[in-house]
């Protein structure tokens, strides 16, 4: 899926709700969720907000939607706990903030933004991230508040059959990540990515999502990228910065994303998905898994899809 923009600068926002074999039972909810998230983020820019504000808002909407593996709806680790990862990056300055393995936080993307804006660091992890959240008054939620009944049942099924991360790789039931990229009318780009990771991951396992250049990257000189898919594969090929590099070399986002996903498939046999926006406003949403729910707002049009080569459009609600 791709779109080539007019030369005039207009705001663009693209979101994904995770690249995996999304079952039919949640396909409609996944598409509705990404459409709502894209509209909420775009509205922020329409009211004068920045690309950074827009990606945070869009990702928060998906963290609050239990159909996605981020915030509410996150998958459980081997101990049956939620451990969340997130990143934000501001293409104006290359400032980035990330958190990994945080617990009891409903919106890790907001905590990641606070790491970027209120500390001298790029990433805080585990109890340090939670201490920081306490110190700036981010409210804690009870772990059970983030876990859905369906996830608890799936987790028990995995335990019963001793399924691990290897069995999840590209399987029907892997469950993965949300993200957003945006270009605002001032020419600034930003990205945000948030995840509960992969079900039955080891305690303390950190995937690609919070790692700069892997789960996301944003640079006003080229564009912004958010990734989803098998985290260990994405990290091995530093997928987000690889896509940025191809865009810097002059490839349009769809070409850059397709060739990097192909490389990841060939080099480390990993599947995934990428959304990208270039500084020109051209954007792409591509994946090598069975499905990826995605949506984009570009001018007056809301684009969306779920299956390969699928691209629907609607006029924006007034
Ligand atoms: N892509 C998310 C993860 O592997 O944790």
Notes on the protein architecture:
The chain starts with a strand and ends with a strand. It is built from ten helices and 14 strands. 33% of the residues lie in helices and 26% in strands. A hairpin with a 2-residue loop joins β12 and β13 (301-305). It is globular and about 50 Å long. The chain is α+β, with helices and mostly antiparallel strands and 318 residues long. α1 packs antiparallel against α2, α2 (51-63) runs antiparallel to α3 (108-118) and α9 packs across α10. It has a nine-stranded mixed sheet. Strands 1-11-10-9-8 form a five-stranded antiparallel sheet. The chain has a single domain (2-315), classed as (Glycosyl)asparaginase (Glutamine Phosphoribosylpyrophosphate, subunit 1, domain 1, 4-Layer Sandwich). The chain binds glycine. Glycine is lined by residues 176-177, 195, 197-198, 207-209, 228-229, 231.
Short description:
The protein is an alpha+beta fold and 318 residues long. The protein has ten helices and 14 strands. The longest helix is centred in the first third of the chain and has 20 residues.
What topology emerges from the helices and strands here?
Blueprint: E1 2-3, E2 12-20, H1 27-46, H2 51-63, E3 84-90, E4 95-102, H3 108-118, E5 123-125, H4 126-135, H5 143-146, H6 149-160, H7 165-168, E6 178-183, E7 189-195, E8 216-219, E9 223-229, H8 231-236, H9 239-248, H10 253-268, E10 272-278, E11 283-287, E12 291-298, E13 301-305, E14 312-315
Parallel strand pairs: 4-5
Antiparallel strand pairs: 1-11, 2-6, 2-12, 3-4, 3-7, 6-7, 8-9, 9-10, 10-11, 12-13, 13-14
Helix pairs in contact: 1-2, 2-3, 9-10
Bound molecules: glycine (GLY).
């Amino acid at each position: 899926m791709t779109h080539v923009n007019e030369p005039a600068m207009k705001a663009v926002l693209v979101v994904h709700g995770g690249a995996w074999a999304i079952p039919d039972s949640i396909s409609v909810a996944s598409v509705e969720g990404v459409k709502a998230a894209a509209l909420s983020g775009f509205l922020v820019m329409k009211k004068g907000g920045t690309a950074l504000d827009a990606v945070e808002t869009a990702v928060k909407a998906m963290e609050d939607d239990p159909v996605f593996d981020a915030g509410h709806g996150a998958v459980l680790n081997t101990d049956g706990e939620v451990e969340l990862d997130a990143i934000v990056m501001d293409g104006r300055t290359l400032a980035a903030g990330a958190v990994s393995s945080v617990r009891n936080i409903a919106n890790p993307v907001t905590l990641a933004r606070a790491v970027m804006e209120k500390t001298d660091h790029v990433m805080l992890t585990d109890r340090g991230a939670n201490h920081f959240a306490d110190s700036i008054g981010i409210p804690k939620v009870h772990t059970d508040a983030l876990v859905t009944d369906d996830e608890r049942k799936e987790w028990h099924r995995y335990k019963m059959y001793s399924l691990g991360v290897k069995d999840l790789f590209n399987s029907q039931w892997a469950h993965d990540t949300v993200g957003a990229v945006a270009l605002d009318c001032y020419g600034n780009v930003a990205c945000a990515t948030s995840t509960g990771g992969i079900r039955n991951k080891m305690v303390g396992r950190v995937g690609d999502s919070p790692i700069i250049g892997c789960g996301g990257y944003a640079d006003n000189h080229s564009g912004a990228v958010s990734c989803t898919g098998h985290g260990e594969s994405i990290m091995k090929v530093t997928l987000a910065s690889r896509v940025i590099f191809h865009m810097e070399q002059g490839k349009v986002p769809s070409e850059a994303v397709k060739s990097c996903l192909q490389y990841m498939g060939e080099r480390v046999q990993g599947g995934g998905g990428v959304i990208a926006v270039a500084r020109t406003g051209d954007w792409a949403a591509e994946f090598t898994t069975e499905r990826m729910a995605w949506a984009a707002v570009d001018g007056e049009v809301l684009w969306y899809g779920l299956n390969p080569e699928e691209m629907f459009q609607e006029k924006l609600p007034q």
